[in-house]
Amino acid sequence: MRPISILLSIAPMLIAQELQIQHDTPRQLSLTGFLAEVLKTNLDLAANKFNINIAEAEIAMARLFSDPEIAAGISSKELYSPNKPESPTEYGVELSWTLELGGKRSARTEVAEVGLQKAKVEFEVFVEELRATAAEAFIDALKARKIADETRKIHQGFVDIVRMNEIRYSAGDIGGVELAQSRLEARKFEGELIQADAEVRIADMALMQLLDTSALPFIPLGELNFAINPFDDEDVISSAIARGPEIQTARQNLELANSEVKLAKANRWIDLGLSAGVNHVPPVKPYGFDIEPANKSNTLSAMVSIPIPFSRRNKGELVQAEAVKSQAKLELSSTELKTRSEAKAALAQYDASLKCLKTFQEGILQDADKVIQASKMSYQKGHVSLMEYVMTQQSCAEVYLAYIGAQADYAKALIELDRVTGGHFRLVTRN
Predict the structure, then answer these.
(1) How far is CA 419 from the centre of its chain?
(2) Domain contains 429
(3) 0.70 cut: is pTM over it?
(4) Is residue 425 in a domain?
(5) Range of the domain at 78
(6) SS3 (DSSP) at 85
(7) pLDDT digits (tens, 9 = 90+) for 17-28
(8) Which helix (H) or strand (E) holds 300?
(9) At 19, which helix (H) or strand (E)?
(10) Do 148 and 198 form a contact (C-beta atoms < 8 A)?
C-alpha cells in the first residue's frame, strides 16, 4: 500500500482521537471569561429578560383605542300581516364607539412605559446580583483548589517523612513506635486531602449550576491575588445611593405608583357613547283602498349617551393608588437608610479583610517557610521529636490556609462593594 493511501486511511481515526481528547480535556476559564459565559448562558437570566418583552407588549396594548361596534338587522317587521297587509320591513345599520375622556389612554400608556423602565431596571439589578453570585462562586472554587493544593503539599511532606523514617528504622536509628506515629500522621492528612478534593468538586458543581446544562465542564483559572486600591468612603456611599440595586428598584416602584395615581384619577372621568345609524324602509305598494302607496325611505340617526356616574362616588381605586404611592415613598426612604448602612458595612468588611491580608503579606508567610525548613532539618538530624515536628507543620499549615482564606475574604469584600454600588467597582486581578 502506498504511503499516501495509508495516511488517508488513518486520517479519520486521528481526527476522531484528537476531537475525543479535546472533549475529554476540561477547558480553562478565568474569572472574566466565566462571568461572560454566565451572562450569556444562564437560564434564569434568559427567563428574566422576557419581562422586558412582556412590558413592551403592555405598552402596545395600552395605546389601543376602544373598538367600535357595528350592529345590523331588522328594526321593524309586522308580525300579523292580515292586520296590516303589505306592511314594509324596516332595516337598520348602526355604528357605535366609546369615547374615553380624562386622558385614560395616555395615563394607561404612561403606566405601561414606566413598567417597561421598571422591567429594564430589574433586569439590570438581576444581572448585577447574578454577577456577584457567580464571582463569589468562582472565588470559592479557587479557594477550594488552593486549600487542596496546600493540603496535598503537607501530605506529601509527611509521606517523605514516612519514607525517611522507614530508612532510619531499618538502620536502627528510631523505634517502631515513631515509625507508626509518622504513618498515622500521614494517613491523617490523607483524610484531610480527600475532604479538600471533595470540596473542590462541590465548588465546581456550584459553578456549573450557574451555566446552561449543555455547557462543557471547565477548570477555574486564576490566583486569589487582587489589586489593593484605596476607596473613598463618601464615594462608595454616594455610588450606593445613586446606583444601589435595592434603591433603584424602590425608585421605580415610586414612579410606577405615581403613574397609577394618575390613571386612577383619569378613570374617574365618564366615557361618552357615540352612535350613528341608518334605517331603510322599502317602498309600499298600494293594496285595496286602505293602503296608500309610499316611496322608500332612508333615515339617519345619531346619539350621544352619557352615563350617570353613581359609581364615581366610590373612591376605592383612587384611595388604593394613593396608599400605594405613600407606601412606595416610605419604602424608598427606608431603602436609602438601609443602602447607606450596607455601604458602610461593606466598607468595614473591606477594611478588615485588607488589614488581615496585609498581616500575612508583611512577613508571616516568609517566617512560616523558614520554620518549616528549619523544623524538617532539625527532625532529620534528631534534634526535635516527631510530635514537635508535627505540631510545627500543623501550625505552619494553619498559617497558609488562613492566608488563603484571607485572600478569598478580601476578594469577596470587593465583590460586596461592587454589588452594593450597583457595579461601580470591579474585581481587578493584580499583574
Answers:
(1) 12
(2) no
(3) yes
(4) no
(5) 67-100+271-306
(6) coil
(7) 444 444 456 788
(8) strand 297-305
(9) helix 3-24
(10) no
